[in-house]
Specification:
The protein is of the alpha/beta class. Helices cover about 45% and strands about 15% of the residues. It is built from 12 helices and 10 strands. The longest helix is centred in the first third of the chain and has 16 residues. Bound molecules: acetoacetyl-coenzyme A.
């Protein structure tokens, strides 16, 4: 992964991969190559048993300013029909391990949509979340109308999408777009600590848990409850489930094997 142009990938904590967006000259605008790089790195993380959770972050001033408008300006409808971006987004959404984001500054347009692909969002006090596409004569194109409405509710989503105005970190917290807000210097340490805590859990249970929670956005309650129960039953066949319960009863730390 030495050839990445828009990302820096590190492993700052045991079991944790950190992906930092590094395109400050374009305020971390997510050009197609950036999305392709994110997908590539997530594929590596998915295949690496030593990685239990991944954290995405930007700079201390901005997370990501949206799709790359210079790139987008050159694309007509026929180009957009063959656009690889929707496939990249699908692959990010399908990443099976926990994905967290430490968000500073602007998360706009596709940047806000990237935030909504993440499982846990920790925001800095100065973070701003917005879908400003309406100001450009377009609409969100990477799930911003659908995921936003599901996360923050109809009225707030409509307000954001129709006015293009951003919400601040505390409103994001209030409406469930972020789960915690911290002073700038505490955001990444807190997110990495959460990722480390998560990465120490049983990998099969993490995968099943993520899948089950995400299913609540995809299907009706009875179907999702059925799926939850099936995963719960299936996990009883895993080494780690028996180890987890045995370790609790024997008052010791569990040793998970990921099977
Ligand atoms: N795409 C490409 N370049 C961008 C960009 C973007 N989304 N956002 C900023 N840049 C570039 C600017 O063009 C500028 O480049 P030059 O130096 O070559 O002129 C550079 O980054 C710095 O920009 P600013 O001077 O504007 O920086 P700022 O710090 O004062 O403001 C900002 C930052 C508030 C993010 C502002 O740049 C901005 O409003 N950007 C556009 C945000 C936007 O509209 N995003 C939605 C994109 S559409 C989308 O995402 C569709 C989708 O859903 C798929």
């Amino acid at each position: 992964m030495n050839d990445l142009e828009d990302l820096l990938v590190t492993r700052p904590e045991p079991g944790v991969m950190l992906i930092t967006l590094t395109r400050p000259s374009a305020r971390n605008a997510l050009r197609t190559a950036t999305l392709a790089e994110i997908v590539r790195v997530l594929d590596v993380a998915a295949a690496d048993a030593a990685i239990g959770a991944v954290v995405l972050t930007g700079s201390e001033k901005f997370f990501a300013a949206g799709a790359d408008l210079k790139e987008m300006a050159a694309l007509g409808p026929i180009d957009l029909l063959a656009d690889p971006r929707p496939l990249h987004w699908k692959r990010i959404a399908a990443f099976s391990k926990p994905l967290l984001a430490a968000v500073h500054g602007y998360a706009l347009g596709a940047g806000c949509e990237l935030v909504m692909h993440v499982d846990i969002v920790i925001a800095g006090e100065a973070a701003q979340f917005g879908q400003p596409e309406i100001n450009l004569g377009i609409i969100p194109g990477a799930g911003g109308t659908q995921r936003l409405a599901r996360v923050v509710g109809k009225s707030r989503a409509m307000q954001m999408v129709l006015t293009g105005e951003s919400i601040d970190a505390y409103i994001a917290l209030q409406c469930g777009l972020a789960s915690e807000v911290h002073p700038a210097d505490a955001v990444l340490p807190r997110t990495l600590a959460l990722a480390r805590t998560i990465a120490a859990k049983a990998p099969l249970a993490l995968r099943a848990a993520k899948e089950a929670v995400l299913l609540s956005y995809e299907s009706g309650l009875s179907v999702a409850l059925d799926a939850e129960r099936k995963s719960f039953v299936l996990l009883a066949a895993s080494h780690d489930r028996n180890e987890g319960i045995a370790a609790f009863l024997e008052k010791r730390m569990p040793t998970y094997l990921g099977r």
